[in-house]
Automatic annotation (TrEMBL), chain A:
Record field: transmembrane: 6-29
Official protein name in the record: HEAT repeat domain-containing protein
Keywords for the protein's UniProt record, in alphabetical order: Membrane, Transmembrane, Transmembrane helix
InterPro entries xref list: ARM-like (IPR011989), ARM-type_fold (IPR016024)
Naturally occurring in which organism (per UniProt): Bhargavaea cecembensis
TrEMBL record, chain B:
Pfam families for the chain: Response_reg
Keyword check for Transcription: yes
SMART domains reported in the protein's UniProt record: REC
GO process annotations (BP): regulation of DNA-templated transcription
Domain of life: Bacteria
GO CC terms in record: cytosol; protein-DNA complex
Positions of the Response regulatory domain: 146-269
Name of the protein: Response regulatory domain-containing protein
Coiled-coil portions: none
Length: 325, 274
C-alpha cells in the first residue's frame, strides 16, 4: 500500500480549490465583459438605428457619430450591414456599405488580419468579402505569403475573385487543386461570366476537382448555350468526366439528343448506362421502349431496375400491374 | 310621405330623400367608395317629363329625387364618381338635348344634403357652363390601416417598420407594429379589428410558422380585411403556388428591392379607395 502523507493530500485539495476559484473568477469576468460588450452594442443600435436607415437609403451622408469606437460598436455595425445586405437590394445600399466600410471599418479588419487567432482572421476575411472592402486587398495578398489554413486560403481566392476578376484563372488555377468539391462549385457560382468562360477554355489543364465543379455548375445553370460544351466532354477518356457531364445534361431537364443516348448505351461503364436509362423518362414512349430493349438484360441490377421503372411509367394502368407482378 | 311613383323608379321627396341620402352616403364611405349627386334643371320641359326621361337612364341602385323647384330633378349615383356622372349626363343630353346641371362628389361623412343642394342650385344659377362640377366638401378622411411586420430578424423587422412608417400614403394612416414570431402576433389581439390590415410576413417564423399564421388569418371572420405579403428566401414555385392558394396576396423573394417593396405597398393601399 502506498503511503501518501496527509499534508500532501491537503495541499493537493487546496491547489485544486485554488484552480477552481481562479477559473470561476475568470468565467465571471469573461461573462461580465461579454455583457458589457452586448450592452454597448445594443446602445449603439438603439442610438443609431434610425440614422443608419436614412444613411443606407441615401437620404443623408454618414455622420461621424456612426463610426464605431470599439469592438462592441463594430459588432453592432456588422449586424446592421448583415441585416441590410442579406434582406434588401438595390438603390445603392451595397455601394454605401462598401464606401463606409472601406473608410471607417478597414482599420479594425487590418488589425484582425494580423491576429494570431485563426477565428479572428477568418471573420475578418468574411467581412472583407461581404462588405466589399477593396482597400484591404493589399493586406489580404500579403497574408497569402504566410502559412494559412485551407479555409483562409479559399477565402483569399474569393476576395481576389471579387476585386480582381480579370486574369483570375491564370493567376490561381494552379493553386486551386486542394479545394473541396463544394468550394469548387461555390467558386464557379460566384465567377463573373468572362472568368467562367476563361475557366471553361482552360478545362483540359484544370485540376480534377475544378473540372468536376465546373461541370456540375453548368448542370445547375441549365444554360442551353453550354450544352455543346458538355456534349464535347462525353468524348473524354476519363469515365468520371463523362459520368458527370451526363448528369449535368440530365439536370437540364430536356429530351436528351439521340446521339448522346446512342453513345452512352454501349458504354462499358454502368453509371453511364444507368444515367442514360434515367434520361429515357423524357423520351417518347415508343422510342423509349426501343432503347429500353437494348438495356433490358444489362449486367447491372440498377440499370435493369431503372429500365423497368421507365417501362412501368409508360404503360397503361392494367399493363402496369402486370409488370409489377 | 309616400314616394311619388312614376314608371318604375320612385321619385323621392323630403323627408325620405334625407334619410336615403344619409344611408347611401354612410354605406359608400364605409366601403371606402364615393357617391355622386347630380342636379338637373330642365326649363323647357315639365318635371314629370324630366323624371320620366331619367327613369329610363338610371340604374336600379340609383335614386331620383325632387327639390323645392318644380323644374329640377336630382339623382344620387351611389358607388360612382364624377366620370360616371358625366357619362350619365351625356346619355341624358343625347336624348333630351342640353340642360343645365351640377355634379357634386360626396367624399366626406359631414356633407349635408340641404347645404349641398343649395351650393348646386347657386352654381347652376351663376355659372354659364352647361355642366358644373363642384369641389367636394372637405377632404377624404384618412383611413387607419394596421400594418404588421413579422420577421425573426429584429434589425430587418426594424428596417421594414421604418420603411413603412416613412411611406407617404395619401388617404391612409399607417399604424405599424412588428412581431418576432407567429404566435405572439396571433395572440396579441391586434388582428381582431375591422380596419384594413396589411401583413408583411416571413414564411419561416419561430413558434408558429408563416404558412400556419396565413391559414389562421384566413380562417378568421374578418379575413377580408387582411392583405398578406409573404417574404421568402426560397425561390420555389411550389412554395409560392401553395402560399397563393392558401390566401397570400403577394410574394417577396429576399433579398428584395426596398423601393420596389414600398411601391407595391403604396399600390395596394391605393386600391383601398378604388
Amino acid at each position: 500500500m502506498i503511503g501518501v502523507p496527509v499534508t500532501a493530500i491537503f495541499i493537493g485539495v487546496l491547489l485544486l480549490f485554488l484552480v477552481l476559484a481562479v477559473l470561476t473568477v475568470y468565467l465571471f469576468a469573461a461573462r461580465a465583459l461579454q455583457d458589457r460588450k452586448s450592452k454597448r452594442a445594443e446602445a449603439y443600435l438603439s442610438r443609431n438605428g434610425e440614422i443608419w436607415y436614412r444613411v443606407l437609403r441615401g437620404f443623408e451622408p454618414a455622420p461621424q457619430e456612426l463610426v464605431p469606437n470599439d469592438e462592441a460598436e463594430l459588432a453592432a455595425v456588422e449586424e446592421i450591414f448583415r441585416a441590410y445586405l442579406t434582406n434588401v437590394t438595390g438603390n445603392g445600399i451595397r455601394e454605401r456599405v462598401r464606401a463606409f466600410a472601406d473608410v471607417h471599418l478597414a482599420p479594425f479588419y487590418r488589425k484582425k488580419l494580423k491576429s494570431r487567432n485563426w477565428s479572428e482572421r477568418m471573420n475578418a476575411l468574411y467581412r472583407i468579402e461581404d462588405f466589399g472592402m477593396e482597400s484591404l486587398l493589399g493586406d489580404v495578398r500579403k497574408l497569402d505569403r504566410k502559412k494559412l489554413s485551407e479555409e483562409e486560403r479559399f477565402q483569399l481566392y474569393l476576395i481576389e475573385l471579387q476585386f480582381r476578376p480579370d486574369g483570375f484563372m491564370d493567376r490561381t488555377a494552379g493553386r486551386l487543386g486542394y479545394l473541396s468539391e463544394y468550394e469548387s462549385r461555390q467558386l464557379f457560382f460566384l465567377m463573373p461570366e468572362n472568368v467562367f468562360e476563361e475557366a471553361a477554355a482552360q478545362f483540359g489543364e484544370l485540376d480534377p476537382v475544378l473540372k468536376f465543379g465546373l461541370i456540375e455548375v453548368l448542370g445547375m445553370q441549365q444554360d442551353l448555350m453550354r450544352l455543346p460544351f458538355l456534349e464535347g466532354l462525353l468524348d473524354s477518356p476519363d469515365p468520371e468526366i463523362r459520368i458527370r457531364a451526363l448528369r449535368a445534361i440530365d439536370a437540364f431537364g430536356i429530351r436528351t439528343p439521340d446521339q448522346i443516348l446512342e453513345r452512352a448505351f454501349d458504354s462499358p461503364v454502368w453509371e453511364e448506362r444507368f444515367l442514360v436509362a434515367r434520361m429515357l423518362r423524357r423520351v417518347p414512349a415508343d422510342e423509349a421502349a426501343r432503347y429500353a430493349s437494348r438495356l433490358r438484360n444489362d449486367p447491372s441490377w440498377l440499370v435493369r431496375e431503372e429500365i423497368r421503372a421507365v417501362l412501368v411509367r409508360q404503360r397503361s394502368p392494367e399493363e402496369k400491374s402486370a409488370v409489377l407482378r | 310621405m309616400v314616394p311619388n311613383k312614376t314608371g318604375t323608379q320612385a321619385v323621392l321627396k323630403e323627408p325620405h330623400i334625407q334619410y336615403v341620402f344619409d344611408l347611401l352616403k354612410a354605406n359608400a364611405l364605409r366601403g371606402r367608395r364615393v357617391m355622386v349627386m347630380v342636379l338637373i334643371r330642365a326649363e323647357s320641359e315639365t318635371a314629370a317629363e324630366t323624371a320620366s326621361r331619367l327613369q329610363s337612364l338610371v340604374r336600379s341602385t340609383d335614386v331620383l329625387f325632387e327639390t323645392d323647384r318644380p323644374d329640377e330633378r336630382g339623382v344620387l349615383l351611389p358607388m360612382s364618381g364624377t366620370d360616371e356622372a358625366r357619362g350619365f349626363l351625356n346619355r341624358l343630353f343625347r336624348e333630351a338635348g342640353e340642360m343645365k346641371a351640377a355634379v357634386l362628389e360626396i367624399i366626406h361623412p359631414d356633407t349635408e344634403l340641404s347645404t349641398s343642394l343649395m351650393r348646386m342650385q347657386s352654381a347652376i344659377d351663376s355659372e354659364e357652363e352647361q355642366v358644373t362640377v363642384l369641389d367636394p366638401f372637405g377632404q377624404r378622411p384618412d383611413e387607419e390601416v394596421k400594418v404588421s411586420v413579422l420577421d425573426p430578424d429584429p434589425l430587418f423587422r426594424d428596417v421594414l417598420g421604418k420603411a413603412l412608417s416613412h411611406l407617404d400614403t395619401p388617404g391612409a394612416r399607417l399604424v405599424v407594429k412588428t412581431f418576432g414570431d407567429g404566435r405572439s402576433f396571433l395572440e396579441s389581439g391586434w388582428t381582431a379589428s375591422a380596419h384594413p390590415h396589411l401583413i408583411v410576413m416571413n414564411d419561416l417564423l419561430p413558434r408558429q410558422n408563416g404558412l400556419d399564421v396565413l391559414h389562421a388569418l384566413r380562417s378568421l371572420p374578418n379575413d377580408g380585411k387582411f392583405t398578406i405579403l409573404m417574404m421568402t428566401r426560397r425561390n420555389s414555385e411550389e412554395d409560392m403556388t401553395y402560399a397563393y392558394e392558401s390566401g397570400a396576396d403577394g410574394y417577396l423573394i429576399k433579398p428584395f428591392n426596398l423601393r420596389l417593396f414600398e411601391a407595391q405597398v403604396k399600390r395596394l393601399l391605393t386600391r383601398l379607395w378604388s
